[in-house]
Design goal:
seven-stranded antiparallel beta sheet; single chain; alpha+beta; about 35% helix; about 45% strand; 5 helices; Alpha-D-Glucose-1,6-Bisphosphate, Chain A, domain 4
Length: about 150
């Protein structure tokens, strides 16, 4: 496979969410992966494997789901950092950094992954712009869902 095509399977994302809640509260919600399906519509399932890992299935607008094993790498409430290793239909890492900001919390989500799912790898040349748009929609819905969840207390 040409190097250019291999690079197209890699994605780097960064989203910033401003939330009207205290950082400790936001962190407490974000560290509970099993509760994500309650507030993030595209996180369809989150099933614990053990104390430090879970299987998560996500599906957004496009007609495919991704299943990943999420394993804790960093869990540091004092620093406001949650970092996980991802394996399965995509492999890499994801990180939340939670800090005070704008009268509430600034939560930054960063992710670096390579898609492993065969169908998505085959469709990369045509599908990449759609995959990127799909991710943006998912993140927008996640921010809205978390903001509503926090507002309900």
């Amino acid at each position: 496979m040409p190097a250019r095509t291999r690079r197209l399977h890699r994605y780097r994302f960064r989203s910033e969410w401003l939330l009207d809640a205290q950082p400790a509260v936001v962190y407490a919600v974000l560290e509970r992966l099993d509760a994500y399906p309650r507030w993030w519509p595209q996180v369809r399932e989150a099933a614990s494997i053990d104390e430090h890992s879970a299987t998560v299935r996500v599906r957004s607008l496009l007609p495919y789901a991704l299943t990943v094993v999420v394993s804790e790498r960093v869990h540091d409430p004092g620093a406001g950092v949650l970092e996980t290793e991802l394996s399965g239909d995509m492999a890499g890492w994801a990180r939340w950094t939670v800090r005070p900001g704008s009268g509430g919390t600034r939560a930054v989500f960063e992710q670096q992954v390579e898609v492993s799912k065969p169908l998505l790898r085959r469709l990369v040349l045509l599908g990449r712009p759609l995959f990127l748009a799909n991710h943006r929609l998912m993140m927008r819905a996640g921010r809205r869902g978390l903001a509503a969840w926090l507002a309900r207390g």
